[in-house]
Amino acid sequence: MALKKNTLAISFLMMALCGVSMAAVYNAGDSAGWTSMGQVDYKEWAANKNFHVGDTLVFNYNNQFHNVKQVTQQGFESCNATSPIATYTNGSDAVMLEKHGHFYFICGYPGHCQAGQKIDISVVPATSNLSPARPPTQSSLSGASSLSLSVPSILLSWAFGALIAFFLSGSPY
């Protein structure tokens, strides 16, 4: 009996950990990356994603020609990078989305933001990840490098945990 209780406790712990560790990683612009060449409509790209607290946004770019500046809404709307909240220049920068709300990013090189190299990321609280996901569009289906976890992933984690609990419980069936 003690073995069953321990097995059940471990199984529930595993299921809880699976639920906590399901943050998504998004590559800004998918395979095109962070660019001003007009290949990516970043407004459309972001609109087709469900960003949650704990997700990571990765900017991949040539740092000889681009950078990433996190700015205020006013800086975003006016393409003003003179007083950034944060500046990223490595060429492969990962930004953890640590709270809900809007995160605004622009390229600080002259003319790039005006050419469309800017992105508004709307982050919802982590508890909202049980809401229905937006239906996929053609552009989101083509972005295979983005990972977004939704309700089926969470249910699959719980089902997997329940299956492990069943097998570890010693039941003959």
From TrEMBL:
What is a GO molecular function of this protein? Answer: electron transfer activity
Key words, A-Z = Copper, Electron transport, Glycoprotein, Membrane, Metal-binding, Signal, Transmembrane, Transmembrane helix, Transport
- SUPFAM superfamilies, alphabetically? Cupredoxins
Cleavable signal peptide: 1-23
Per its UniProt record, what Gene3D superfamilies does this chain match? Answer: Cupredoxins - blue copper proteins
Q: Which Pfam families match?
A: Cu_bind_like
The GO cellular component terms are: plasma membrane
Q: Which residues form the Phytocyanin domain?
A: 24-125
Instruction: State the source organism's domain of life.
Output: Eukaryota
For this UniProt entry, which segments traverse the membrane?
149-168
Could you identify this protein by its name? MAVICYANIN-LIKE
InterPro entries listed in its UniProt record: BlueCu_1_BS (IPR028871), Cupredoxin (IPR008972), Phytocyanin-like (IPR039391), Phytocyanin_dom (IPR003245)
UniProt organism field: Salix koriyanagi
